[in-house]
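for the writeup, i need someone to sanity check this before i put it in the appendix. the sequnce is what the collaborator sent (i think, or maybe the updated version? ugh). structure was predicted straight from it, no edits. if anything looks off just tell me and ill rerun, i have time this weekend
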Amino acid sequence: MKIDRFDHLVVTTRDLERCLHFYVDILGMELDARNGRYAVKFGRNKINIHRKKAEFLPAAANVTYGSQDLCLIAEGSIQQIRAEIEAKGYPIELGVVDRTGACGPIDSLYLRDPDGNLVEIAVYKTKE
């Protein structure tokens, strides 16, 4: 077996409207809402949004609001991304700081979604 990539992950939210505002309006992801289910998409990736713990089964053993720590790779300048988020009035917790991603050195900034999940937005310093 050779694992290729993630397809999706799940974020559980207490407040669907605030959660979707963050991922769609602040981060610019595309909303996918159908059949009573919600997700946000970007590139070849998807984050499923669950409205309550273990909304769909099977589920993780210990679903907890705000327990995710995500790193999202973005294109462009990390300084421009920072300015865009600040212009939208959303608080940045930390950054810009040097980190190491799966493929090498990255510049990162950190913010939290409405449920407290830590969301790192990063740009590779060199071509991946």
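The helical segments are 16-26, 78-87. The longest helix spans residues 16-26.
thx in advance!!
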